[in-house]
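User: I've been trying to design a sequence by hand for this structure and keep getting stuck. Would you show me what you'd pick, starting by listing the structure so we're on the same page?

Assistant: Good idea, let's start from the same input. This is the structure you sent:
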């Protein structure tokens, strides 16, 4: 995300915080008139601030700070109302279950929710419209052919709120034939960004022109990098082995041991807290179908090392009598309780033990079975890149493309996995965890 888009996200965040406090301010005026100031300071500021923090987290999980979703369409309206409903329920639950708050506002909370809903809907629709209309700050000239260029142009057109506009296009043949046209188009269209195919950046005649434009303040980037910025994945057809050498750090960063330690403690704590749930699930699995409670399966982990993955059994014991196969939607091999476990992802709770052992991370590429890895490595370029780091219970690919039924699905998910491989960080990991929680409750499969 570039600095302009970060500023946009911050603007939405700041507007939401302001709307929350303005709504509370108006609520207290309605309820207490001239006495609202003392009431606000003494009783409402602290408890409502805690509530507001949780509300903002819900907004984030639901994607209300994702620029790609901030358009005034039915999907956005449904998401916003869903958030308001969840936040209202959360506020009621906390106010009436935490005596330390010192208040249990019934009328105040009802008025506040109504006032905030009006303010938030108004501000959000206004900001969405402002982001989508008007002149885009980034005016691009795209030089390149093929599927990657077409996908980028389509994404920019469909998401004007990202702040980019394609002002001109030039195919590779035309750029080769007349490099001076690049400068002519850039000056005529007021371009401040040139997106060019990677191979063209090494043509001497073109490099000279690009350098001259770069010296005037125009940003020059290659098509793959721009695709990654816009699509948040890395196009397989646009990279070579050298891309990995230049973009993937293999040395151990400070984050790696910190991540391992925090995951060990987190998995241990979650396992202890959810132990009663795990016992109930184990009993249900044992009582509703024949076979072991825990299903063990060999998976391929970091650097190709195999390990045993643990899950609550969700299928019949003879589910793979004809050999290994991917699970499909409405899989007839699933047991009645197994369908519920798979939809809620509760079947994956035993993987906390894999995290404690160090086989898995909370976040990373999803580990695949050896039978499939061998076939996919032979058919799909750079598939082995998923094995550069430790696999995870959830990942960047899982929250963007959950199906895994065909080679095309595998390629799509691999592009997201490579993006994560390049950009992994504490912030991205937390974003994936929060979006995973959202996908479980909002878009279960």
């Amino acid at each position: 995300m570039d600095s302009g888009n970060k500023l946009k996200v911050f603007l939405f965040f700041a507007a939401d915080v302001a709307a929350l406090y303005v709504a509370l301010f108006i609520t207290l005026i309605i309820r207490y008139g001239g006495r609202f100031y003392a009431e606000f300071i003494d009783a409402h500021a602290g408890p409502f601030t805690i509530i507001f923090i949780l509300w903002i987290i819900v907004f984030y999980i639901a994607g209300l700070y994702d620029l790609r979703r901030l358009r005034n369409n039915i999907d956005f309206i449904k998401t916003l109302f869903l958030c308001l409903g969840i936040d209202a329920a959360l506020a009621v639950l906390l106010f009436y279950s935490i005596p330390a708050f010192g208040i249990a506002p019934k009328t105040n909370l009802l008025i506040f929710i109504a006032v905030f809903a009006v303010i938030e809907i108004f501000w959000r629709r206004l900001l969405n419209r402002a982001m989508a209309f008007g002149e885009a700050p980034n005016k691009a000239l795209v030089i390149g052919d093929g599927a990657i260029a077409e996908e980028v142009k389509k994404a920019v057109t469909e998401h004007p709120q990202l702040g980019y506009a394609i002002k001109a296009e030039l195919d590779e043949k035309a750029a080769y034939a007349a490099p001076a046209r690049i400068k002519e188009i850039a000056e005529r269209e007021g371009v401040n960004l040139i997106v060019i195919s990677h191979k063209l950046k090494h043509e001497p005649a073109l490099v000279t022109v690009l350098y001259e434009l770069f010296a005037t303040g125009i940003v020059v980037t290659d098509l793959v990098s721009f695709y990654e910025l816009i699509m948040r994945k890395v196009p397989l057809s646009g990279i070579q082995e050298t891309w990995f050498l230049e973009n993937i750090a293999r040395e151990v960063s400070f984050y790696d041991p910190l991540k391992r330690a925090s995951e060990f403690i987190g998995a241990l704590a979650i396992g202890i807290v959810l132990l009663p749930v795990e016992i109930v699930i184990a009993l249900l699995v044992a009582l509703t179908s024949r076979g072991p409670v825990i299903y063990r399966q060999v998976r391929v982990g970091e650097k190709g090392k195999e390990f045993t993955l643990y899950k609550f059994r969700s299928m019949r014991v003879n589910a793979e009598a004809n050999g290994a196969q991917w699970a499909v939607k409405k899989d007839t091999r699933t047991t009645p309780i197994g369908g519920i476990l798979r939809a809620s992802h509760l079947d994956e709770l035993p993987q906390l033990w894999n995290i404690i052992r160090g086989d898995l991370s909370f976040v990373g590429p999803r580990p695949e079975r050896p039978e499939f890895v061998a076939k996919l490595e032979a058919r799909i370029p750079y598939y082995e890149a998923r094995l550069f780091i430790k696999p995870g219970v959830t990942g960047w690919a899982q929250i963007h493309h959950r199906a895994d039924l065909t080679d095309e699905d595998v390629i799509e998910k691999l592009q997201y996995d490579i993006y994560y491989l390049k950009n992994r960080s504490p912030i991205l990991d937390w974003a994936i965890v929060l979006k995973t929680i959202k996908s479980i409750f909002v878009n279960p499969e």
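That's my pick for every position. To get oriented when you compare it with your attempt: The two ends are 29 Å apart (CA to CA). The chain has 18 helices and eight strands.
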